Amino acid sequence: MDWDLCKTFVAVADTGSFTAAARRLHASHPTVSRKIAALEAQLGTKLLARAADGFVLTADGRMLREHAEAMAAAALRAEAAVGAGGRKARGTVKLSIGATLASHWLMPRLRSFLSEHDHIRLEIITHPFPASVRRREADVVLRPVDSGEENLVGRKVGRLGTGFYASRDYAAGRSLPERSGEWKGHSVVGFADQDSNAQLARWSDTITRQGTVVMRCSSQGDMLAAVRAGIGISALSCFVAESYPDLVRVAPQKLVSVADLWLLAHPDLVELSAVRAVIDFVAGCARADREQLRG
Question: HTH lysR-type domain spans which residues (predicted)?
Fold first, then answer.
């Protein structure tokens, strides 16, 4: 059985559409469609059935998916076994990380790592976040939740703090809130994407419920820009906001939310030299910057 065709099938099975599978595989929609047709012809059976919102697996498709995932796991173990014996770390490593951490924290630290490990090609995956290691969307993930249902291995490498911030212009001539009853009359910039930021969104809405939400944003970058423009007060990652001298923190001793940061990988990949190099580098950076990340 052609492994390349199986990988395409698994991508469609995971995403439920040719378009999403093509995006994951960095291929075109017609290429994915052609490979699925070739696999069905090779096996002499239908693997997918059309549904209202994409595709679902047939009985034969469900059976093949089980075997294909076993093949993928075996491929991972083989890759790790061969790679672990190499003298120099090499290959592509996909790191899943939140967009804010990627741009404001990791990027400024990557130049030295890439110079030292010139045989490693690093892919930074910020969408979807967190990416799935089981589906090979990523090899390593840095995220504020533990291994969950993916049976990953790793450790907690730090804590990520979030606080409320306002611009100095906004704060001039007015008293910033210290307790819940003091939010009346204040403008608030809230979370628009409450699915990916559910815990922080609930925390922010609870604290600021007596204020007036003047706008919501789906990205930390837009929330930061809104606060710096003096539009209102917003919850921001402390390590980002503290780097801007035009911002002031609201009630730093009282209003803070802290989440654990977990660095995780597939158990069959952790001994792959390139993956191990990335894990050690990210863990080292988090350890060195633990106070900055905590806020």
Answer: 1-58
